Protein 1
Amino acid sequence: MLWCNSIRYLGVYKTSSAVFTCSFSNSKKTTFRAFNALFGRLGRATSPDVIVQLFKAKCLPALYYGSEACPVNKTVTKSLQYVIKSCFSKIFQTRSDDVIAECMNMFNCLPVADAISRRKNFFLSQFSQSNNFLCYLCGLAAF
């Protein structure tokens, strides 16, 4: 019998631990893979506006997938933020944190903590509006 440290369920990797935790390493790899494919095709021939919009539409959903249902601590938030910062760094050819933060602000790309918070609130509001009584109670208990 093989023992493993994580299991994939509905695309989210649950890790073995004393408390409920999830692994986002696969989400980060998928996001980098999608961004590199996108940037490799478009490169410098396309304006940064188009690349950022495609990044937000195609890559960020892969990064945030399952974050609503998983506990996200400060370390995970920082590692997910690094993925976004490195992609913006490549798009705008800069390593300056101030420039990257301003570009993210200009293109309305939320910081990871805010984006996950919004996604969790929407997820829980859907539970509280559910016709299923058990889901309704879980949604109310979360607020």
Protein 2
Amino acid sequence: MNENGRELGWDDQIENDGPDFEVLPEGDYDFEVIEFERGRHPGSDKMPPCNKAVLSIRIKGAAGQTTVKHNLFLHTKTEGLLCAFFTGIGQRKHGEKITMNWSKVVGSTGRCKVGVRKWKNDKGEELTFNEIRKFYEPESKPATKFEAGKF
């Protein structure tokens, strides 16, 4: 079976419970993009219909590990968020004009701010999940004479 899995038939047997879902505390974490799917947003009160990238992002920290689904909407209203993502994975420098290279997204790594969101389902049960609130620009510290021990 490949990494993307396979379609199940109506009469197939199933047994894989999947990984335990863990909610990490709010904070800054390292991440890796492990999957990318092309999708379509049908439109809503806040966003007109547009293409979207559905990313599966593995987040690792001292408190554990979880996977978050993160949508990137391909629309001028969210261009800043697209720029922040591509800067965060090192495909772009701040202020630079680029063509988004989706073929290099899976396997990309970076650092992000993770939040915790709570909501109530149709049964009135409160549920909690992680969401990515910000992608950080990679740290690039060129060696200075001071850092190199030279004055």
Protein 3
Amino acid sequence: MSKSLRLFFIIIFLGLPLWWGINVFAQKLEDFFYTNVAAQEEEVLNQNAAIEKQLESMKPSRKEETDALEVGARSAISVLIKKDGTEKVLFQKNIQEKLPIASITKLMTALLVMRNYNFEETVEISSEAAKVENEQGSGNLRVAEKFFVKDLLYFLLIESNNGAAFALADMMDEKEFVDLMNITAAELGLEDTFFVNPTGLDPENQQDLTNYSTVEDVAKLAIYILKTEPSIWDIARFSEFDVYSADGILFRKLKSTNELLGTMPDLSGKTGWTLRAGGCLAIIYLAPDKQSYLVNIVLSSEDRFGDMEKMMDWLNGAYQWQ
């Protein structure tokens, strides 16, 4: 065999494996490069998503240039409820101070009625229920008048009728009903809340205990109702409502005690006032981002509606909502 032929075979013998090896290595290097790039790209996307989620959780963000809010109410809170159910406190003042809550009590009364009563059951107004004192603007119910349970809820939540609260509680037995109010408060984690009646009225003896809570606990109750029994807030959105007795006769037009209805989108709320409690107000409405809800509470206020309007205006301007 000639030298040139031997050289040819040597080149073939040694070159082909080398060429194949180089190609395999190059392919593996290319696969590694693209796999690594894809992994890096996925990591960047995940990091960006995490950053976006973190930024979203921070919204609304407080504007540094805005002044702090000052309200005359002794205690106040604003809680944002996001569409995923998470909560964020946007304003607070003495949120754990125990104070009388007046007719804010009726939120718990309404919750127990929703949970335990047949809406179509008829309630006959007793002489005791007819005598119960009402806030200004709420007319007394008449002895022996009959209403469906569902209709008494409108009395309860729109005009804050104390006779309706008593009549509903008395269906179960008032003491048993109040005991259930306190049991439910404990179940909901309202550790600083206590009830002695279903109305929120001050006791005749001013030295006796009255219904009390904190704005923090009231906010928890309001949020729980929003999530589980939203029809309570739906009823409280009515500024006026025609109510009928059980026999279908028009009884009267109820007018809400809440002066702020209609001032904010989807606004609802519950008022309260007694000499001992002062002005109380629980408000829930659609937040400026149009996706969340704001729950605002004020207790022991000389101007509950003015304090609440001030809070709502401040929240709108003090935070970046978009």
Protein 4
Amino acid sequence: MSTDTKFINGLIVKEPNERAPDYVKARLSIKREELIAWLQSEQGEWINADIKVSQGGKWYAAVDDWKPDSQRGQQSSRPARQQSAPQRPAPVDDFADDDLPPF
């Protein structure tokens, strides 16, 4: 993963208003033409971004260019996520259609 931060031109992130409800996590402003120009310069179908806060307290969006090792061909710098719960087996459909009552 690159250590250089790649900003998204035309996308401005701001801290929510102090009177905003708890479910509002950030405010976004879009400079339409600037964002469109930036998007057209990018490759790929998807662009992932993280909303971050600088050491000075300014909010911003940064491109998340992380890709799995198989797509990148090199060692990942992102730690593996731990699974929170064991996987459950898929449910078994043990009813035949004739077991259902008629409508």
